[in-house]
């Protein structure tokens, strides 16, 4: 059974007293271990859809089910990585990752080891005591990835995660995501307007159009992954 089931979802925002319908009749599922890309032009409601999955917004119509239950707020099961890395500038890499593990029931020692484990996985052990401003953009994005993964979420939600990176870093992190899918069966839903990225990463692409935002078609990518 799907990990997410989105059923006939509609969503409007009130701007200057005018209600704008941002999503209309959106229906799809996400299977466990799948990478799903939401592709579409700017403003078509991709981020809104991701926010509904993450529990940061609620639908006006329809339902969003996570493991069969309505999503009723943010949870550690689904961790969101934002466009801006969202690192705390006055905290070290280590601290930035540990902070994500507060209130998980882990002891201080466990949090420390968990943070070290994931910082190593993204290849930043030698930078563990650096502050974000001492790192390149690619490195900061890797810290954000480590912080999200350290929580061991069932689903990773990513909003244009690699948009700000140069080609080399983008390829490195995209490959890391594929390795993660392979080794951990990590479920990922990512938003992008980059068709190449969607085709490279996703098992399935939901192509959205605007006015109001809706899914125009679903494309299953043939399995060519090595
Ligand atoms: P995308 O991610 O595809 O660029 P968004 O989901 O960010 O699209 O935005 C879709 C539409 O909803 C846009 O017209 C945007 O202005 C509007 N919108 C998004 N978030 C809000 C909000 N919090 N309040 C009001 N309008 C919003
Ligand atoms: P990457 O390709 O890893 O994103 P860059 O090409 O941006 O890195 O930078 C090359 C190297 O310069 C990096 O590996 C990093 O060690 C160092 N570096 C980049 N930006 C900074 C910075 N703001 N402060 C200190 N060192 C930096």
Automatic annotation (TrEMBL):
Recorded coiled-coil stretches: none
Every copy of the ABC transporter domain together lies at 4-226
Annotated InterPro entries: AAA+_ATPase (IPR003593), ABC_transporter-like_ATP-bd (IPR003439), ABC_transporter-like_CS (IPR017871), ABC_transporter_ATP-bind (IPR050166), P-loop_NTPase (IPR027417)
Instruction: State a single Pfam family of this protein.
Output: ABC_tran
**Keyword rRNA-binding attached:** no
Spell out the PROSITE patterns in the cross-references. ABC_TRANSPORTER_1, ABC_TRANSPORTER_2
- Please state what the protein is called: ABC transporter related protein
Q: What is the lineage of its organism?
A: Bacteria, Bacillati, Bacillota, Bacilli, Bacillales
Q: Which gene encodes it?
A: txxe 2843
């Amino acid at each position: 059974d799907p990990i997410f089931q989105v059923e006939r979802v509609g969503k409007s925002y009130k701007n200057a007293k005018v209600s704008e319908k941002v999503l209309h009749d959106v229906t799809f599922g996400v299977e466990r271990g799948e990478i799903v890309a939401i592709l579409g032009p700017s403003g078509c409601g991709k981020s809104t859809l991701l926010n509904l999955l993450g529990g940061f917004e609620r639908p006006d119509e329809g339902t969003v089910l996570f493991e069969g239950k309505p999503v009723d707020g943010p949870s550690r099961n689904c961790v969101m990585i934002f466009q801006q890395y969202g690192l705390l500038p006055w905290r070290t890499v280590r601290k930035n990752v540990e902070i994500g593990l507060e209130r998980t029931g882990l002891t201080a020692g466990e949090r420390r080891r968990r943070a070290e484990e994931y910082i190593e996985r993204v290849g930043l052990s030698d930078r563990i005591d650096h502050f974000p401003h001492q790192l390149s953009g690619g490195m900061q994005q890797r810290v954000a990835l480590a912080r999200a993964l350290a929580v061991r979420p069932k689903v990773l939600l990513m909003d244009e995660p690699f948009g700000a990176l140069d080609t080399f870093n983008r390829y490195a992190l995209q490959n890391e995501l594929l390795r993660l899918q392979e080794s951990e069966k990590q479920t990922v839903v990512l938003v992008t307007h980059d068709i190449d990225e969607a085709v490279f990463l996703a098992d399935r692409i939901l192509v959205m159009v605007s006015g109001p935002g809706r899914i125009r078609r679903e494309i299953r990518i043939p399995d060519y992954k090595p």
